[in-house]
Design brief:
With about 475 residues, the protein is an all-alpha fold. About 80% of the residues lie in helices and about 0% in strands. The chain is built from 17 helices and no strands. Helix 8 runs antiparallel to helix 10 and helix 11 packs antiparallel against helix 17. The longest helix has about 35 residues. It is globular, with a radius of gyration of 21 Å. The two termini are about 30 Å apart. The C terminus is likely disordered.
Length: about 475
């Protein structure tokens, strides 16, 4: 099932199906960010509740996405992808009906389960269905389109929150899910690993979930738990994490083969993913709140503010994938995070004095443009490099690992940064939120710089991901 041409009608429809499915999950994440302030007002939610609204989804997604990739490799990637789309849509409807913060958090956890089923399948379907020479270009197109969905989310979410209700930010997933299922049924061939043995690694899945849950509770609830309980929970997370590694090394059929991480390119790209997506996720969380709480933007205006990034992604994301194919991933994945860091550092100075058009043009827009250019450079080469470094037949697992790492980075950053920069229940006070915002943004810039350093070190032997066996991670280090 790996010889379909990207230029054919079926090839284009395969990309459309994967973009619709994964874009739905990415859109939802960014749409929810712009709705957080109104959710807090409507449901009487504190800052910790808002962190859980974001992190409940990420917790389920990050801890189960590896299992989702394995399920696709075993039972059929199209089948598990379609199941994830249906699950995600039903959970979205439940989110829209929630009446309390607790109900919304539980619904978001369920939504994350659906995301864990559909997210790894989207890239795995591209990798398994299209011919080898078209994969990097297809991934570039996928990255650009799903990136647009993620970043255009604040605009759409802002309009819905301001003129309808925050509940509709979840309702929009239902028609998207219907369209995804139709295109998938019409155009996407089924694929699975040729030979699968053994049972599922249930123990690994449980330990991964427990590790992230313990760390997330400790970081978000640290103020109410107290120092002793917080340290105890963090210690438990470390113990559970070590147990997860030991189980994965010793079990006969782990969720993810430990041998994958023997490849320096695969390991380095995933470490860079952890650092970069921690910064990207926290940046989106804080900027959206800063524009509304401190600068005074209405939800729609806060969404429109990020549109320059959308334009850049539309114009340049696929080019970033082509550049990585032509010169290799090292330079794009080093320069990209550095540009993002400059943009984030610029945005850290946004405050109440930047209300109005002049403030937007001098304080907000330049940072967004530089950030967007960096994003265009790094995202497609990163995804292509991770998939190319995995052995044939492990596309679902490799995609699952990278998605788990990305969501874990965002999860931990959003859990840890508010308390680390001194924000608590009084977050709606601009005089309190703005200094914390600036400190958080500078930390995000530092994480991006560190991600660039990791890329420069780890990818010096990485080939361009475009030529069959050579692109399959043959270099070890």
């Amino acid at each position: 099932m790996s010889g379909i041409e990207l230029a054919s009608r079926q090839g284009r429809m395969i990309v459309v199906a994967t973009v619709l499915g994964s874009g739905m999950a990415m859109l939802d994440s960014s749409v929810v960010n712009v709705a957080l302030a109104r959710i807090g007002e409507d449901l009487g939610a504190g800052l910790a509740d808002l962190q859980w609204v974001t992190n409940g989804y990420l917790l389920a997604l990050a801890s189960l996405v590896l299992l989702g990739g394995s399920l696709g490799d075993r039972f059929g990637r199209r089948r598990i992808f379609s199941l994830g789309v249906v699950w995600f849509a039903v959970a979205s409807a439940v989110c829209g009906l929630a009446q309390t913060p607790e109900q919304l958090i539980v619904a978001r956890l369920l939504q994350g389960v659906g995301g864990a089923l559909l997210t790894p399948g989207s890239l795995a379907l591209l990798e398994s269905s299209l011919r080898v020479t078209d994969r990097a270009k297809a991934i570039g197109a996928w990255t650009g389109a799903t990136g647009i969905a993620s970043i255009a989310g604040p605009f759409l979410g802002g309009w819905l929150v301001q003129y309808a209700s925050w509940r509709w930010v979840f309702g929009i997933n239902i028609p998207l899910a219907v369209a995804t299922l139709w295109v998938t049924r019409v155009a996407v061939p089924e694929s699975r690993r040729d030979r699968v043995e053994g049972r599922f690694d249930v123990g690994g899945a449980v330990l991964a979930t427990a590790t992230l849950a313990a760390a997330t509770v400790a970081l978000i609830q640290s103020a109410s738990l107290g120092a002793a309980m917080t340290v105890a929970l963090l210690g438990l997370a470390v113990v559970l994490g070590v147990a997860f590694v030991l189980v994965e090394r010793r079990t006969e059929h782990p969720m993810v083969e430990p041998s994958l991480f023997a490849d320096r390119v695969f390991s380095g790209a995933n470490l860079m993913t952890l650092l970069t997506y921690a910064a990207l996720g926290a940046m989106s969380f804080f900027v959206t709140l800063q524009l509304q709480i401190t600068v005074g933007y209405e939800p729609l205006l806060a969404g429109v503010a990020s549109m320059p990034i959308t334009v850049l992604m539309m114009a340049l994301a696929a080019k970033g994938g082509e550049l990585g194919t032509r010169i290799g991933p090292r330079i794009p994945m080093t320069v990209g995070p550095l540009l993002c860091a400059i943009g984030v550092a610029w945005l850290s100075f946004v405050d109440a004095s930047d209300a109005g058009l002049a403030g937007y043009l001098t304080a907000v827009l330049p940072g967004l443009l530089v950030f967007g250019l960096g994003l265009c450079l790094l995202v497609a080469p990163l995804t292509a490099t991770v998939l190319a470094a995995a052995p044939e037949g492990f596309a679902g697992v490799a995609s699952g690992v990278n998605n788990a790492v990305a969501r874990t980075g965002t999860l931990l950053a959003i859990a840890a940064l508010p308390a680390a920069v001194g924000l608590g229940s009084d977050y709606r006070d601009a005089a309190v939120f703005s200094p914390g915002y600036q400190r958080a943004m500078l930390i995000c810039a530092g994480l991006l710089v560190l991600g660039a350093v990791v890329s420069w070190w780890a990818l010096r032997a990485a080939p361009a991901p475009s030529s069959g066996a050579v692109s399959r991670g043959t270099r070890r280090g």
